[in-house]
């Protein structure tokens, strides 16, 4: 393994995770919060439903059965706590909130939903006035959705600073994981753009970038702390659900790319289904037909079915002998396992009123990091293959001895010029031959003969080669195609070529270098195509070779 590959793997598998862990560890450390600065304020709340006349006492969190869009009023006496800057903190799901202290309105939040029924999660900090102990506090909650009408989360009371710090400490770890996924997606997208600029086609990088960006947007917009910076729960909620519903599309296309499944109809079908599901959900949300949360169980079922389908594809491909990369399959199975765990915890949280940490986002971060490592190794392979391909292409069109273009390249250029002869103002063809090369090989050896060929190529390249490409078209034969150049200029460079030959001979002992050449100019009345021009130039060269005269021969 090359040192640069080792460095890349170390950066991807060790440096980035260690950096992330250190960052998380440093950010989650904070000033110690005294236990008596934050108190659960959940017991013995009196509730009253004006719509039905229902009343009673509940412990929070609770779900009070009320009609949709009906307000629920909760009342309690402010505890006798010796805490400065006393404040309430609680979360709501798309509910209007009003808070009264001794019948005085001190907090009013919420409006009609902008986009559909579900304007998102909100958290509320309500500062209480000084000397409010034993006052009556009333919280009125209203929801336009039957699903969330009567849903009341936990309420905490304490120092405002302590409540805010506690919120940050609880939510910072998931937020950092979410931001890391989003940042990795942006880096991958930049990498894909850079690869495209250098003509390296790797669709897997693009799909993994989209998967990371969608996942990062989904998880970041779902965090409570995001509302500290973007206090628009409606916008955050729509970004959250649209990103989540679109997330499987790039994931499935990435699988198709990595496993090289060009014609897998099942993956194509699943991708289209998720895309249509996301678009139809957004339209129904905007038209107030069905909100995002109503179709969430459908999305979960589709995701589980997709996980089963992908595992089946892995199994079938392995049976066919087309085994996908092992590390990739392991990362996918781990992702599916944590998805199942998160779904179980998600629905259990509604039934048993428990909080849980989203393990899926950890598995998603690991999936992305692992596959970045896999892509990194693939990029090194792609780069090496491109270098080898360029080398092979160069060898196919280059003479290895003289480093001039070879006969194949000459034929390609002749055919290209032949197709546009009428558009050229002039075409000249010079054919050259090294005299007595066989005698030189027999007398001085093939090594000396090769040296003569190399020196001849150098002279041709710095003289007539300045006017057009020079080709080695045979063992001792060369050609030069010159376009759109006056013959007088060509004659000057030909004279310089023979001066270079004389200079070489004056500086070197036997054998002497001698070049025969012939030139022909394309004339429509003489040449039906470029190949007729070649015949005339070749004939001129042989005439020159016979007479051994260093003069220009024009036919």
Structure explained in plain terms:
By secondary structure, the chain is of the alpha+beta class. The chain folds into 3 domains: 40-153, Galactose-binding domain-like (Jelly Rolls, Sandwich), CATH 2.60.120.260; 170-390; 407-547, Alpha-Beta Plaits. It has helices at residues 3-28, 160-197, 203-221, 226-229, 233-246, 248-258, 265-286, 296-319, 326-352, 359-397, 407-418, 437-444, 446-462, 487-507, 530-547, and strands at 38-40, 45-49, 54-58, 62-63, 72-77, 86-93, 96-101, 104-109, 121-127, 136-142, 151-152, 155-159, 427-434, 470-472, 477-483, 515-521. A 6-stranded antiparallel beta sheet has the order 3-2-5-10-7-8, with no helix packed on it. Strands 1-12-6-9 form a 4-stranded antiparallel beta sheet. The chain has a 4-stranded antiparallel beta sheet with strand order 14-15-13-16, with helices on both faces. α3 (203-221) packs antiparallel against α6 (248-258).
Classify the secondary structure makeup into a structural class: alpha+beta
Total DSSP helices: 15
Would you tell me the overall average pLDDT?
80
User: Which sheet architecture does the biggest sheet show?
Assistant: 6 strands, antiparallel
Q: Identify low-pLDDT runs.
A: 1-7, 29-35, 549-555
N/C terminus separation:
61 Å
**How much helix is in the residues?**
40-55%
Shape: rod-shaped
Instruction: Please tally the β strands and state the result.
Output: 16
Q: Evaluate the radius of gyration.
A: 39 Å
- List the strand order in the largest sheet: 3-2-5-10-7-8
Tally of distinct domains: 3
Query: What fraction of residues sit in β-strands?
Result: 15-25%
């Amino acid at each position: 393994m090359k040192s640069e590959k080792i460095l890349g793997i170390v950066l991807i598998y060790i440096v980035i995770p260690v950096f992330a862990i250190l960052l998380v560890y440093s950010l989650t450390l904070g000033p110690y919060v005294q236990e008596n600065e934050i108190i659960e304020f959940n017991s013995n709340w009196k509730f009253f439903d004006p719509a039905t006349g229902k009343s009673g006492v509940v412990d929070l969190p609770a779900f009070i059965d009320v009609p949709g869009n009906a307000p629920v009023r909760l009342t309690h006496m402010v505890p006798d706590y010796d805490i400065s800057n006393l404040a309430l903190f609680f979360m709501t799901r798309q509910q209007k909130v009003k808070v009264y202290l001794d019948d005085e309105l001190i907090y009013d939040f919420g409006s009609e939903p902008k986009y559909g029924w579900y304007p998102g999660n909100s958290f509320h900090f309500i500062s209480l006035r000084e000397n409010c102990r034993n006052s009556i506090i009333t919280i009125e909650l209203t929801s336009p959705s039957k699903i969330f009408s009567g849903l009341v989360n936990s309420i905490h009371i304490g120092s405002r600073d302590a409540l805010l710090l506690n919120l940050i400490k609880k939510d910072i770890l998931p937020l950092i994981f979410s931001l890391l996924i989003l940042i990795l997606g942006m880096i991958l997208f930049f990498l894909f753009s850079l690869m495209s600029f250098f003509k390296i086609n790797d669709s897997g990088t693009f799909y993994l970038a989209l998967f990371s960006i969608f996942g990062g947007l989904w998880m970041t917009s779902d965090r409570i702390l995001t509302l500290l910076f973007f206090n628009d729960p409606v916008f955050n909620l729509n970004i959250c659900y649209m990103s989540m519903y679109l997330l499987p599309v790039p994931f499935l296309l990435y699988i198709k790319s990595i496993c090289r499944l060009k014609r897998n109809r099942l993956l194509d079908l699943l991708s289209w289904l998720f895309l249509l599901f996301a678009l139809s959900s957004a339209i129904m949300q905007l038209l107030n037909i069905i909100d995002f949360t109503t179709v969430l169980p459908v999305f979960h079922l589709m995701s589980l079915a997709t996980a089963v389908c992908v595992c089946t594809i892995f199994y079938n491909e392995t049976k066919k002998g087309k085994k996908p990369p092992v590390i990739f399959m392991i990362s996918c199975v781990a992702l599916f396992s944590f998805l199942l765990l998160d779904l179980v915890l998600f629905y259990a949280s509604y039934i048993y009123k428990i909080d849980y940490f989203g393990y899926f986002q950890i598995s998603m971060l690991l999936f992305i990091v692992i596959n970045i490592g896999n892509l990194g190794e693939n990029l090194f392979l792609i780069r090496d293959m491109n270098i080898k391909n360029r080398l092979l292409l160069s060898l196919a069109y280059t003479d290895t001895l003289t480093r001039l273009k070879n006969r194949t390249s000459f034929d390609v250029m002749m055919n290209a010029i032949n197709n546009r002869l009428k558009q050229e103002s002039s075409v000249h063809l010079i054919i050259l031959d090294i005299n007595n090369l066989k005698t030189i090989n027999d007398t001085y050896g093939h090594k000396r003969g090769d040296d003569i060929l190399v020196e001849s190529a150098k002279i041709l390249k710095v003289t007539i080669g300045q006017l057009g490409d020079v080709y080695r078209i045979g063992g001792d034969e060369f050609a030069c195609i010159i376009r759109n150049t006056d013959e007088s200029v060509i004659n000057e460079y030909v004279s310089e070529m023979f001066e270079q030959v004389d200079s070489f001979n004056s500086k070197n002992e036997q054998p002497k270098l001698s070049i025969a050449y012939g030139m022909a100019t394309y004339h429509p009345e003489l040449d039906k195509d470029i190949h007729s021009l070649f015949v005339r130039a070749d004939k001129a060269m042989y005439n020159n070779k016979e007479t051994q005269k260093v003069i220009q021969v024009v036919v």
